[in-house]
Amino acid sequence: TTKAFLPRMLELQHGHVVCLNSILSQSPIPGAIDYCTSKASSLAFMESLTLGLLYCPGVSCTTVLPFHTNTEMFRGMRVRFPQLFPPLKPEIVAQKTVDAVRTDKAFLYLPWTMHALVILKSFMPQVALEEIHRFSGSYTCMNTFKGRT
Predict the structure, then answer these.
(1) In angstroms, what CA-CA distances link 70 with 10, 107, 131?
(2) Closest CA to 60 of 1, 109, 11, 105
(3) Which of 11, 13, 31, 107 is the Cys-Cys partner for 58 at CB 3.0 to 4.6 Å?
(4) Catalytic residue from among 35, 55, 109, 139
(5) Is 35 designated active site?
(6) 68: alpha, beta or left, given left = phi > 0 and alpha = psi -120 to 50?
(7) How many Å from the N-terminal Cα to the C-terminal Cα in the chain?
């Protein structure tokens, strides 16, 4: 799709490429290997594209990295502390995406606390990250998964 539309956007110096990704692109979990790897490759594509368009006036990118969104796709997924990390409402994700495009934000983490996860991952040892994942229940959240595969 990008290949089809980007040349005209560049010619017109007007356009915005939006990718609805997932925080699982940067923090994968067991039970969703195919999903996590496809999102990771999509993230790499968008990071490269965003950098490639830095000096292309009028054309930019937004990558949205939400946590668990309350849709049929993730039906049955359970987190250990749903009060701290409730599933996102699709309408909120949509509105925040539109807001990010309007403000030309390159990367949007939803909720904002997911950005902290990426920061922690950048300097914490793997063993510590595994303990955080075990404690939070993210390693077992897919055990009750009934959504689409």
Answers:
(1) 36, 21, 26
(2) 105
(3) 13
(4) 35
(5) yes
(6) beta
(7) 23
Backbone phi, then psi, for 103, in 5-degree steps? -100, 10
Distance of alpha carbon 122 from alpha carbon 91, whole angstroms: 31
Please name which of 16, 18, 15 lies closest in space to residue 93, comparing C-alpha atoms.
18
| pLDDT at 147 exceeding the cut of 70 | no
Q: Where are the alpha helices (DSSP H) in 1-149?
A: 2-12, 33-52, 90-102, 113-123, 126-136
Q: Kindly state the percentage of the chain with pLDDT values over 90.
A: 56
Query: Looking at residue 75, what is its pLDDT?
Result: 67
Cα-based angle 77, 82, 88 (whole degrees, multiple of 5): 70
Mean pLDDT of all residues in the chain?
88
Between CA 49 and CA 5 the distance in angstroms is 13
The predicted pLDDT at position 143 comes to 60
